[in-house]
Amino acid sequence: MNPKSTIKGRGAQLNVSNRFFELSHDIRDDFLEYCQKEGETSDKNKTLYLEVFPKTIVNKVESPDIGMAYSMNPYQGCEHGCVYCYARNSHEFWGYSAGLDFERRIMVKKDAPKLLEALIKKKSWKAHPIVLSGNTDCYQPAEKQFEITRQCLQFFLKYKHPVAIITKNALILRDLDILKALATDNLIGVNLSITSLNEDTRRLLEPRTASIKKRLETVKTLSENGIPVNVMLAPIIPSINSHEILPLAKAASDNGALGIAHTIVRLNGAIGEIFTDWIKKTMPDRADKVLHQIESCHGGNLNDSRYGTRMHGEGKIAEQINMLIRLARKKYFKNKTMPKLNCDLHESFKDGQLKLF
């Protein structure tokens, strides 16, 4: 890889066209050449935080093969920059590209805590685990500044409402005080994503995420404080991290995780173009091999939207990956299981305190 040929600190290396727009914007080679000769930068590569004002914050998840019923996203777009991220496509609905815009144009929902409280106080609302976040990471760098996730967790605690968290950032430990209080009543479960034990791989795939060392330390700290942790080995990418399944599972178990989950990478919508461009720039020696192996897991396509097969794939390579996951569970997670979250307390705390009568 030639570092000069890539955009520092970003996963995607281009802005692909938005499928909803008739016109597109391209950076031409002659413009890049002019900038180089003049000593100017063609792209400042800055992250912008843009406040938005949604009317609701909790989404009902209709997909039958996703293990959640409700999710909420304090942020849209994600500065972590994971090149494979399925959430990239959703940025097109906001009028941006699924490529670099997804990492550099972050929508901030400051009203999220207020909207959450209004929902869970409704008489018609029945407690069910709400997942932070089903789309983009609720502990991405923006959270350090805005603390929206922390405010939401305070309401989950106040109203004794179950919540699950998906993240790959050690920033979650900032909120250990609230998480411990939630865990006292079995109201919290954490899913922490770890896709590799190799820092070089992590930097390429997920340029602005916490290091592997910090993530494993996070699993250990959460577990030692009574907070149940499931490690997401997701996605598994053939010939990039597929050989790490057993070592990853062992490291997760050794640090206190109660389980693992996985998906096989699928490159839907604009992600196929983004990932293909990225791998040809960062791993040119194995780009074709990886792309063909991904295709072999999804009926000959990079793109796979079929319920029931899209997550875990099909074919020989997918079968081998899924077999290794089963072996890892049997070997490292025997007699371990994630507890079911408590949905029974919330009704008595709908006004923020225990009802005595």
UniProtKB/TrEMBL annotation:
InterPro entries: Elp3/MiaA/NifB-like_rSAM, MJ0683-like, rSAM, rSAM_sf. Signal peptide: none annotated. GO terms for molecular function: catalytic activity; iron-sulfur cluster binding; metal ion binding. Residues 64-301 form the Radical SAM core domain. Keywords: Iron, Iron-sulfur, Metal-binding. The keyword Metal-binding applies. Pfam families: Radical_SAM (PF04055). NCBIfam families: rSAM_PA0069 (NF033668). This is PA0069 family radical SAM protein.
